[in-house]
Specification:
alpha+beta, Glutaredoxin, 2 domains, two-stranded antiparallel ribbon, 9 strands, globular
């Protein structure tokens, strides 16, 4: 009986401690900000300054892009599927829009400055809509660009001694002032994606 009683006591203590930890975690999560002030710590800062060079040799930064809405996404030329698929789908959408697609810019930002030289990017982009700009920079400039969009990029070694890149796959939608307006998801229907692009162009 004493052993059973001791076991129950220990079990209840474990439950009590676990419950207390859950309550503390909830309070920290919900009340992290000062009373009366909104908690903005979880709001990502997207659209901060960056400077890169296009596959045509132009210096592209926030000031150059300002004045037109634009789409931005991260990738690399050795990407086997997501990056070329996204570029092909964006090219297809731009083709459907025709001349109206000149009302916004599209930038493809390389997260692999080691392999994605300007010459390689120039060759790579011949497969897609000519209005899309591929951007690259030094490792430091690339890291700054990734942080500017609160994105993610990491080199992942492969078994053959090479590497691939793990990175944010979403397409950022930025307005003419460089403010973040949402994302374009390639898993959405074509109609939804087209509507989002048209709304971005009109500012609605």
């Amino acid at each position: 009986m004493k052993a059973l009683r001791a076991f129950r006591l220990v079990a209840w203590c474990v439950v009590a401690i676990f419950t207390l930890l859950l309550i503390i975690g909830y309070l920290l999560q919900s009340g992290g900000g000062k009373r009366g002030e909104p908690d903005t710590s979880s709001t990502p800062a997207i659209g901060r300054p960056f400077e890169l060079v296009s596959h045509r040799g132009q210096v592209i930064d926030n000031a150059v892009l300002k004045g037109k809405p634009y789409l931005a996404f991260f990738g690399f030329t050795h990407c086997p599927d997501i990056c070329p698929t996204t570029l092909f789908e964006l090219s297809d959408l731009m083709n459907e829009l025709g001349p109206a697609a000149s009302g916004f810019n599209v930038v493809f930002i390389s997260v692999d400055p080691e392999r994605d030289t300007q010459q390689l990017l120039n060759e790579y982009m011949t497969s897609f809509d000519r209005r899309i700009l591929a951007l690259r920079g030094t490792p430091e400039q690339t890291a700054t660009a990734v942080k500017a969009f609160s994105a993610y990029a990491r080199k992942v070694p492969t078994e053959d001694g090479s590497y691939t890149m793990d990175h944010t796959a979403g397409v950022y939608m930025m307005d003419a002032n460089g403010s973040f307006k949402g994302t374009l998801d390639m898993h959405e229907s074509r109609e939804v994606r087209m509507k989002k692009i048209r709304n971005l162009m009109t500012g609605s």
